[in-house]
């Protein structure tokens, strides 16, 4: 079972991701905001991290930078409303592996998660 | 002597009666206008989603300017919280206004700052800049910290205006707590208008006693202290009733210094914040509006009634008195500097409605009230007080004060209902009943003292009257 | 003062001066108004508590229901929909919350899941309710209903919506425009031909969003609105030509570089820059100095994107020493062209600044 950390503040999106990823046979942990995520990241190791960029307390960017500093090999997928090129470029420059924009297709997301998990 | 006095009493009574009725009808109009405006606002905004906005390339980039003076205690959390604002493109400029505490060191360590050579020009004259810093960490790309020689809030904001990169600026207090969609909401007037929007203001809420964690409101609570609780009512009245109505007739004269958005170019053309007044927030907006009117360019000032910004209000009588004293001076100074506008049809709503209103009801009201009390004391000394008339008069005024507060409370219940606990209503009503007796006299006295202090400090008055619109860019240094 | 024991109200009323009567009358009036408001507050509070509780329950129910419906293969769709319809769609509030929640899900999802939600919306019989809202008569209910229909791509006979295209309320008009846009098979922006009111930035954002995320037909040729009477429509079209990479329309944008209207000129420069039109700078640089501040800034931006250091210097020669804003932009671009001279440029600028103040 792969451990996935989902960092997201929209209750509806959380439920859907949790439902879908658990159905795919993953061990899913949820962080509802950046601060909670930071705490989880300090004490745990994950096989994959799925994060939003606009989060309460701590931004997605700060989380990404923290993950890249401490566990650079953990793959990161960003799930964000932003479609602006510069925001996406910034995320890739910080080392994220994939960028999915909202509205998202849960099936496609599940595929991309699987692909990254196999690669690593 | 006796008949002279009774004639005088008669005239004075009439005067107070007429003045009172004008105030009351003014308030009634305000209430009705506000109700319509709030209802409309609620209806307009109940089906649109923000996704289109967040994905848009057309939203103007914003520079959030936050001056900080000895904020070391919370500055790291406050900055982190500002960074989490929901908006596609923004920068945060923290202006350290010569703090004597360790604010700079804290920011340096937490956000991995390094000195950057950034080109800037003093479009508005300011005190010297010691250094401009950016983060080495890409995650904090949109953070800029400016370290400067102390010069006061207005000067710090002007420094931010000179250095920031974007054409729309949002001036805030670094310790105020913003809702995460604050910028998306505040920018709306800029997008949704045919005329040029030069500024938009938002509602300030009272944060005292609320549960706050890392720069975010977790639970809204009613303040524990009476002083702060009355201000909850005051803010309802001022924002939900007052400014909402003024915004409907496009006559807003004040956008709170704690939270307002401006078109940077217009601010620069108007000369930036005035460092010689304690009412720099009101003065700036009045000057910007005056400039636009004199240029004969169509423009608007927007206002957003959602609760977007929370701030700590004074908890003690002493601090409160100091604040109100300052507000009075700010109002008086601003009105004096722009006295030319008053009753001047050239300035339309501003000249015929807004400035006279501020003059007669905001500035003059406490003085008239104070005179009324002096008058009462004189009558008392001469044994001329008709207690029955006095008591009924007091009852009428008192019941009006209650009605006014209850109406404001009704607006809040109807619109945003931030105070969820049912017991809060009763506490607020209780507060409203005590306010006219306990709180109001203190406020009135602070206002009187503010005017007194203003007259006493003739020097600063003299400097100020020279630094008006006539020579806006090159302002006198203190 | 008062003798309460033998107080006679009528006598009191007769003997009191008019001013007292007036005061008492006013006080009573205010107090009764205050009481009315107070009662309304309590009433609203009770009502809201009751309603929010119901809302919360329904939302909780829906999150589970919708997730199972969307992602659980073992979910007996037919039966569960029937159940939900019978037990949880009885009151107007339940219906309202359900519509809102499905919309909220739909906003965040695309692909197969979004299609599933649209089917669910129909199967729950919510289309009928939305149509009832449409005819409700209050503008905000109508606007909300049109919004729901277009979000979920639910087609209704055209004449049901067409009537609202010329509504006096801005919001209704906007929603009906978006409806036709989102559901169009082709020519999604036909309504622009008939538009007589300026498009606000706000409207432009939503139109663009609907075009990109909802409309599925071929992209319209935006050049057809370049001679529209409204500046805002022309501005929008110029921008869209670049967003949709309509290189064939470049020649039609060139004339706007001579436009007297700064908004259009600025937008044209911006679009041609994004389309990487090679001839652009030659048309702009020679009479750079004759432009307004906004245009000058935009030209500098074009030089940054498309030009060389030589181009930049030609613009620099036309800058006045006191054009601080432009000079800062100029030097920033210069630093980009000459990264090795970054510090030199900075200190040179600061030096000039010091002596000119």
From TrEMBL, chain A:
**4-aspartylphosphate sites (modified residues):** 52
Q: Where would I find the Response regulatory domain in this sequence?
A: 3-117
Please verify whether the record's keywords include Phosphoprotein: yes
Does the keyword field hold Phosphoprotein? yes
Q: What Gene Ontology biological process does one annotation of this record name? A: phosphorelay signal transduction system
User: Where do transmembrane segments lie in this chain?
Assistant: none
Q: Which UniProt keywords apply?
A: Phosphoprotein
What name is this protein filed under? Answer: Response regulator receiver domain-containing protein
UniProtKB/TrEMBL annotation, chain B:
The entry's keywords: Glycosyltransferase, Membrane, Transferase, Transmembrane, Transmembrane helix
Task: Keyword check for Flavoprotein, yes or no.
Answer: no
Q: Which residue spans traverse the membrane? A: 12-36, 349-382, 388-412, 424-448
Question: Mind telling me which InterPro entries this protein's record contains?
Answer: Nucleotide-diphossugar_trans
Q: Where is the signal peptide?
A: none
Origin: domain of life? Bacteria
| Any GO molecular function | glycosyltransferase activity
What Pfam family is a match for this entry? Glyco_tranf_2_3
Q: Report the sequence similarity comment from the record.
A: Belongs to the glycosyltransferase 2 family.
Which named protein is this? Uncharacterized protein
Origin organism is Gillisia mitskevichiae
Q: Lineage of the native species?
A: Bacteria, Pseudomonadati, Bacteroidota, Flavobacteriia, Flavobacteriales
Automatic annotation (TrEMBL), chain C:
Membrane-spanning ranges: 20-47
Domain of life, per UniProt, equals: Bacteria
Q: Which SUPFAM superfamilies match?
A: ARM repeat
User: What keywords were assigned to this record?
Assistant: Membrane, Transmembrane, Transmembrane helix
List the protein's name: HEAT repeat protein
Q: Which organism is it from?
A: Gillisia mitskevichiae
């Amino acid at each position: 079972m792969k451990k996935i950390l989902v960092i997201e503040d929209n209750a509806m999106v959380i439920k859907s991701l949790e439902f879908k990823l658990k159905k795919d046979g993953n061990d899913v942990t949820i962080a509802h905001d950046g601060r909670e995520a930071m705490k989880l990241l300090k004490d745990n190791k994950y096989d994959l991290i799925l994060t939003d960029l606009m989060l309460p307390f701590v931004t997605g960017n700060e989380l990404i930078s923290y993950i890249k500093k401490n566990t650079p090999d953990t793959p990161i997928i960003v799930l964000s409303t932003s479609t602006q090129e510069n925001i996406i470029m910034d995320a890739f420059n910080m080392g994220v592996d994939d960028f999915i924009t909202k509205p998202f297709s849960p099936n496609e997301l599940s595929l991309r998660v699987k692909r990254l998990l196999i690669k690593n | 002597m006796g008949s002279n006095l009774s004639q005088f009493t008669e005239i004075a009574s009439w005067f107070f009666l007429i003045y009172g009725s004008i105030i009351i009808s003014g308030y009634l109009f305000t209430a009705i206008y506000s109700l319509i405006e709030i209802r409309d606002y609620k209806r307009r905004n109940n089906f649109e989603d923000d996704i289109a906005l967040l994905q848009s390339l057309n939203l103007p980039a914003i520079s959030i300017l936050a001056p900080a003076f000895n904020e070391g205690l919370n500055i790291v959390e406050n900055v982190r919280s500002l960074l989490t604002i929901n908006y596609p493109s923004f920068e945060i400029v923290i202006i350290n206004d010569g703090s004597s505490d360790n604010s700079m060191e804290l920011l340096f360590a937490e956000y991995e700052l390094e000195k950057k050579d950034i080109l800037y020009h003093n479009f508005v004259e300011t005190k010297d800049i010691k250094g401009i810093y950016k983060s080495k960490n890409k995650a904090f790309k949109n953070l800029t910290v400016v370290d400067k020689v102390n010069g006061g809030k207005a000067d710090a904001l002007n420094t931010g205006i000179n250095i920031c990169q974007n054409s729309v600026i949002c001036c805030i207090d670094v310790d105020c707590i913003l809702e995460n969609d604050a910028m998306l909401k505040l920018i709306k007037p800029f997008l949704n208008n045919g005329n040029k929007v030069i500024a938009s203001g938002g509602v300030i809420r009272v944060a005292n006693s609320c549960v706050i964690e890392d720069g975010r409101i977790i639970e809204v609570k009613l303040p524990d202290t009476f002083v702060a609780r009355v201000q909850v009512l005051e803010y309802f009245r001022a924002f939900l009733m007052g400014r909402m109505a003024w915004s409907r007739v496009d006559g807003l004269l004040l956008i709170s210094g704690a939270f307002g958005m401006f078109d940077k170019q217009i601010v620069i053309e108007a000369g930036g914040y005035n460092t010689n007044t304690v009412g720099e927030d009101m003065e700036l907006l009045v000057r910007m509006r005056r400039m636009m009117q004199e240029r004969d360019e169509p423009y608007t000032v927007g206002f957003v009634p959602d609760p977007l910004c929370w701030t700590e209000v004074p908890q003690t009588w002493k601090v409160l008195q100091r604040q109100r004293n300052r507000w009075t001076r700010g109002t008086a100074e601003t009105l004096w500097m722009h006295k030319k506008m008053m009753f001047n049809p050239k300035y339309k709503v501003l000249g015929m409605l807004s400035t006279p209103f501020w003059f007669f009801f905001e500035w003059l009201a406490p003085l008239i009230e104070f005179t009324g009390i002096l008058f009462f004391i004189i009558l008392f000394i001469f044994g001329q007080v008709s207690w029955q008339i006095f008591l009924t008069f007091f009852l009428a005024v008192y019941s009006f004060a209650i009605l006014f507060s209850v109406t404001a409370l009704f607006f809040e219940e109807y619109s945003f209902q931030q105070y969820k606990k049912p017991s809060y209503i009763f506490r607020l009503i209780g507060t409203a009943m005590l306010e006219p007796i306990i709180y109001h006299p203190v406020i009135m006295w602070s206002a009187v003292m503010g005017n007194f202090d203003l007259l006493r400090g003739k020097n600063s008055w003299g400097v100020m009257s020279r630094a008006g619109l006539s020579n806006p860019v090159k302002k006198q240094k203190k | 003062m008062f003798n309460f024991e033998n107080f006679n109200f009528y006598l009191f009323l007769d003997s009191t001066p008019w001013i007292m009567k007036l005061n008492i009358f006013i006080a009573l009036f205010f107090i009764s108004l205050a009481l009315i408001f107070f009662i309304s507050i309590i009433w609203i509070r009770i009502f809201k508590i009751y309603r929010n509780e119901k809302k919360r329950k329904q939302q909780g129910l829906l999150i589970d229901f919708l997730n199972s419906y969307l992602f659980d293969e073992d979910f007996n769709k037919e039966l569960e929909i029937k159940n939900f319809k019978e037990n949880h769609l009885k009151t107007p509030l339940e219906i309202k919350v359900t519509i809102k929640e499905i919309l909220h899900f739909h906003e965040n999802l695309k692909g197969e899941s979004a299609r599933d939600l649209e089917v669910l919306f129909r199967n729950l019989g919510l289309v009928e309710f939305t149509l009832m809202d449409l005819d409700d008569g209050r503008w905000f209910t109508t606007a909300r209903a049109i919004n729901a229909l277009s979000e979920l791509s639910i087609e209704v006979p055209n004449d049901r919506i067409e009537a609202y295209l010329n509504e006096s309320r801005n919001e209704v008009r906007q929603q009906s425009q978006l409806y036709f846009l989102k559901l169009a098979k082709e020519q999604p922006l036909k309504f622009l031909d008939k538009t007589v009111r300026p498009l606000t930035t706000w409207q432009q954002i939503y139109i663009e969003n609907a075009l990109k995320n909802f409309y599925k037909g071929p992209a319209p040729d935006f050049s057809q609105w370049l001679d529209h009477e409204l500046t805002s429509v022309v501005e929008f079209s110029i921008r869209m030509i670049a967003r949709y990479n309509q290189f064939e329309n470049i020649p039609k944008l060139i004339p706007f570089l001579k436009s007297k209207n700064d908004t259009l000129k600025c937008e044209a420069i911006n679009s041609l820059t994004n389309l990487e039109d090679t001839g652009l700078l030659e048309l702009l640089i020679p009479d750079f100095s004759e432009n307004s501040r906004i245009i000058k800034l935009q030209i500098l931006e074009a030089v940054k994107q498309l030009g060389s250091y030589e181009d930049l210097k030609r613009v620099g020669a036309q800058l006045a020493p006191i054009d601080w804003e432009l000079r800062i932009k100029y030097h920033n671009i210069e630093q980009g062209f000459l990264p090795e001279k970054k510090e030199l440029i900075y200190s040179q600028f600061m030096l000039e600044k010091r002596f000119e103040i």
